[in-house]
Amino acid sequence: MKKNIFFPIACALMAAPLLTSCQDDVDSSAGEKSNTHTYSLVADASEGLQQAPDSRALTEDASHNIKSSWANEDEILAYVINDGLEATNYSMITNKKLGNGNRFDGEIASKDTISTSSQIAFLYPGKAAQGNDKTITPVVESKERSSLFHEESDKIQELVALNLTQQDGTAETIGNRFDFQWSKQSPKSVSGKKVNVNIGKMKRLVTIWGLRFTDDKNKPLANIDSIYVSNVKGSDVLKLSDGTFVDGNPEDEVMNVVLKPKAGEKFSSVGGNYTYVAFLPGTYEDVVVTAYVGSKVYQKSYSSITFGSDKIYRTDLLKMEDTQQKAYVEVQGIKWATGNFIHYKEGSQEYWGIAPTQWWISRRAVMLDPSSRKEVSSGGNLQSSQFESSPKQTTDDVDLFRFGSIAKALSFTGIAGLDVWGNTEISQQISSDGKHGDIAWYYTKGN
């Protein structure tokens, strides 16, 4: 299949190392049982800071440089590996900012006694494992599915799900909630109930991409409502034991990230401003960046991009076209009708992206605002895309997926049902042979 890639010279990815960070304190709220041991944990980060400018908090200065610095009360999750403690919350240690060094103090709980041969995993940011909007969640393998999938656990685990799918485009929030960093160390000493350890250099698990946009006239975009980055990994399951991700679990992996600005604000590239997104590193194909500005939808596609960990990339997406000005968007040599691109909100969840099937769009249409629409009488229990009232169908709505694959799909005259145009036979197996037909039936039959 032919792939189209849009890489103007000015848009080439420029990678620069992003300083690794370290942080967090061990919270003592670990739901102990009678056999739980609780230790005072002191973790020295100053040695790591001397080796390299390890850091935690991310900020952007007036020149759009990313700055990193330790902050008082920074927290790091601490977990004793292979311990088997059943607790409700992970232990946390907190940066007390003593002099020129950084020392994290707190309590750590364990089922077994801790010794200098014990191994303690550290994960930053600890605050991301707390509260209703946490992005670090303990998980266990689901026993209810045939494929590998993990579900949330009400007890701490060596497996944690990292969720980067909803962000606000700022370096500060990435530092607070998504700048995942991992380390594993054995204690330097254990004296009674006091444990001393060096955190050392932490391994940053994410990559960060700074984006700026211009329209088709090369004017910087302003008043951007949201940005959607598809086909990059926005979630996965991390093993605290070794800092690697679980293999063979595609159902845990969400391949998109949505950026929405803080309440009352908009994204803007005016003045050279960047919008930042963090996700898990890797080599990705068919990456699509979509910027929504009012009724306009600007888009740029890349056939293949490689993102490394512990790096920041900056890209200028120049002369982006408004995809809604034409009936299709070409991705990988295929013309996709703009009706594939959807936006809906359900409770606190909001989704921007590409519909998985046309039947999915139809089901959404049936379920939403039922007072203003009615299925055709022959629909029965079948979720149908046909209505006696709203929503009104237009030619832009019909030929979803492969624009023009069925030559006469946009001709409504003589429609007699989901799969019949009068007496015309449409049972061809090859889409290029089809002249008439309902795209929904043609491409989703059997699904």
UniProtKB/TrEMBL annotation:
Residues 1-22 form the signal peptide. Keywords: Signal. This is Fimbrillin family protein.
